[in-house]
Amino acid sequence: MAERVYCLYRGKDQESILMQKNACHDFTEKKGWNIVGEEQEIGVSGYKVSADDRDKLQLIKKYAEQGKFDILLVFMFDRLGRKSDETPFVVEWFTKKGVRVWSVQEGEQRFESHTD
To answer: pLDDT tens digit string along 47-85?
Structure first.
């Protein structure tokens, strides 16, 4: 069975979003994965806006809790956020829910110990 993938795109403009979307679609096609959903955040700062205040990220978390997908895919991990004291915990939250977190550019992010 092919993996069910949810994609998150975040960028300053539609051109940036389109580039990320194309890269994620190419990546999933090569892996044989199925995209089951996509969200985009245009003009939302991953540094200035807390993960708790990002509506699209909260929606994706809700879907993760409902078991709607197996993998969260972003172009780069900084699309999840840019706060060093917050973003790793966002990734960890998904992995604890059984969702694998992947980046097109950086591969899979794993949490095997508290030092990861």
So the answer is: 676 778 889 999 999 999 999 999 999 999 888 877 777
pTM for this predicted structure: 0.90
* Cβ-based neighbour number of residue 63 at 10 Å: 17
What angle in degrees, to the nearest 10, is found between the helix axes of 55-65 and 87-96?
20
Q: What is the phi/psi pair of residue 105, to 5°?
A: -85, -30
7 vs 28, 30, 35, 106, CA distance in Å?
10, 15, 7, 15
Place of tokens 């069910």: 4
Query: What is the DSSP secondary-structure string of the chain?
Result: -PPEEEEEEEESSHHHHHHHHHHHHHHHHHHT-EEEEEEEEES--TTTS-GGG-HHHHHHHHHHHTT--SEEEESSGGGT---TTTHHHHHHHHHHTT-EEEETTTEEE--SSTT-
